[in-house]
Structure formats: C-alpha cells, structure tokens
Amino acid sequence: DTGVSQDPRHKITKRGQNVTFRCDPISEHNRLYWYRQTLGQGPEFLTYFQNEAQLEKSRLLSDRFSAERPKGSFSTLEIQRTEQGDSAMYLCASRGDSNSPLHFGNGTRLTVT
Amino acid sequence: GESVGLHLPTLSVQEGDNSIINCAYSNSASDYFIWYKQESGKGPQFIIDIRSNMDKRQGQRVTVLLNKTVKHLSLQIAATQPGDSAVYFCAPYPRYGNKLVFGAGTILRVKS
C-alpha cells in the first residue's frame, strides 16, 4: 500500500489548452473523490465515485470539467479550455468503507498562464 | 448547508508547549469528524477521527474532544514540536451524504 498517487505533481499550461490529471487510489478502496484547493482555503469537493459510478458532482464542476473512473480503479480529471481561474491544487482522495477517513494524495498543482 | 468555522486562524506556540486548535461546525447531523494536517505542498494527512457517540479520543500526542451540545471540536497536541507546524483542518462527515466539508484551516506555527 503506497497511498494515493497523483500524476503529474505540477502542470503549467496556457489558457485555452486541455489538461488531464490521473489518480491511483489505495488499491482496495472503492470510493474515490476529487477536491480542489486554492491558496489559503480548505479543499472544496468536486466529485465522488463509488467503483466506476460517478454518484455526486459539485456545482463547481462546470461543463469544462469531466471525471472518469472507467474500471473502478484509477480516475482521470480533465479540464478543457483552461482558464486562469482554474489554477489550483487538485487533490484526489480515496476511502474504503463508510466508516473510514479519506486518504489524500499530494495533489496536482495546476498553473494556467 | 454545512459550514465549518475555526476560532483561531493562526496559532503560535513555543516548542514543548501544548497546542489547542478549535473548530465549530453547524450541521448537527454530522456524526463523524476527522482532523487533518496539511504541510506545504502536500495533501491533507489524516491525524485522528472521532464519532458522535464519543466525546474524547486519544492518539499519539493528540487528543480530540467533541462537544455536540455546542457543536465544537478541539484538537490538543501535547509537547508541540517543530514538525507539527502545518495547517490543521477539521472536517465533519454527514450522516447522510458523501463528502467531507472543510473550513479554511488553522495555521500552527511552532517557535523553537
């Protein structure tokens, strides 16, 4: 068990480009979450998967954002036509059963120039 | 909706002293509470959790107290060390729902 892994750690992109981030959860965890965090704020919920099913999406997740978890293991978060306001840390977390805490990865820091 | 507030946005303590970080929550339906520590450039790291049927839980150098009557949590760190310097978040988990709600956090600075 190596914990939650996110790739890349850092991404710099120009406005208007598309970016995709990957998250590998702890192997036996069937619940996977994406959060976004900006400087000086706590993480904000974006979306939640149980196995391959996306069960909840925040209103923060505009139509430029899409998340998938095709086989119920790793997940991807894609942002299309990036904007400067998308600059943030994107955090992935996973958990096992409903009585356990979320375990976070170290995030992908996105900078949109 | 849920809101989470913290009484002290920044706490400075001397190395070796005890630290107390407070947190207020608004949703009385929360039945599971988690404290996280976040160091610069890293994701939140689980410290300790407590369920609503408990009022105190102890870990290694940390104690969490829960007062459901006033919807208040505290995290006590004994013999604070420089490595404890970080941002601390409390995150209530609702009884019905899928997501943790985070406040802005409390910055803990440990002076040597």
Structural features, described:
The complex is a heterodimer of chains A (113) and B (112). Chain A is built from no helices and 11 strands. Chain A is an all-beta fold. In chain A, the strands form 2 sheets. In chain A, strands 2, 4, 5, 6, 9, 10 and 11 form a 7-stranded mixed β-sheet that branches. A 4-stranded antiparallel β-sheet of chain A has the order 1-3-8-7, with no helix packed on it. Chain A is globular and about 40 Å long. The radius of gyration of chain B is 13 Å and the shape is globular. In chain B, the strands form 2 sheets. Chain B has a 5-stranded antiparallel β-sheet, with no helix packed on it. A 5-stranded mixed β-sheet of chain B has the order 2-10-9-4-5, with no helix packed on it. By secondary structure, chain B is mainly beta. Chain B has no helices and 10 strands. The N and C termini of chain B lie far apart (40 Å). Classes of the chains: A mainly beta (113), B mainly beta (112).
Please write out the topology.
The complex is a heterodimer of chains A (113) and B (112).
Chain A (H helix, E strand, L loop, with lengths): L4 E3 L2 E4 L5 E6 L6 E7 L6 E7 L2 E5 L7 E4 L6 E5 L8 E8 L7 E2 L3 E5 L1
Parallel strand pairs in A: 2-11
Antiparallel strand pairs in A: 1-3, 3-8, 4-5, 4-9, 5-6, 7-8, 9-10, 9-11
Chain B lengths: L3 E2 L4 E5 L4 E7 L4 E9 L6 E7 L4 E3 L3 E6 L4 E6 L8 E9 L11 E6 L1
Parallel strand pairs in B: 2-10
Antiparallel strand pairs in B: 1-3, 3-8, 4-5, 4-9, 6-7, 7-8, 9-10
Keywords:
heterodimer; A: 113 residues; mainly beta; four-stranded antiparallel sheet; 11 strands; 0% helix; 50% strand; globular; B: 112 residues; five-stranded antiparallel sheet; five-stranded mixed sheet; 10 strands
The residue fraction in helices of chain A comes out at under 10%
The residue-averaged pLDDT of chain B reads: 89
Our measurement of the CA-to-CA distance between the termini of chain A, rounded to an integer number of angstroms, reads: 36 Å
The structural class of chain A is mainly beta
The proportion of strand residues of chain A reads over 45%
Helix content of chain B: under 10%
Oligomer: heterodimer
Order of helices and strands of chain A: EEEEEEEEEEE
Please count the helical segments of chain A.
Answer: 0
How many beta strands in the DSSP annotation of chain A?
Answer: 11
Most extensive protein-chain contact, per-chain counts: A-B, 23 and 21 residues
Give the count of helical stretches of chain B.
Answer: 0
Strand order of the largest sheet of chain B: 1-3-8-7-6
Mean pLDDT reading of chain A: 94
Radius of gyration of chain A: 13 Å
Query: What Rg of chain B do the Cα atoms give?
Result: 13 Å
Strand coverage percent of chain B: over 45%
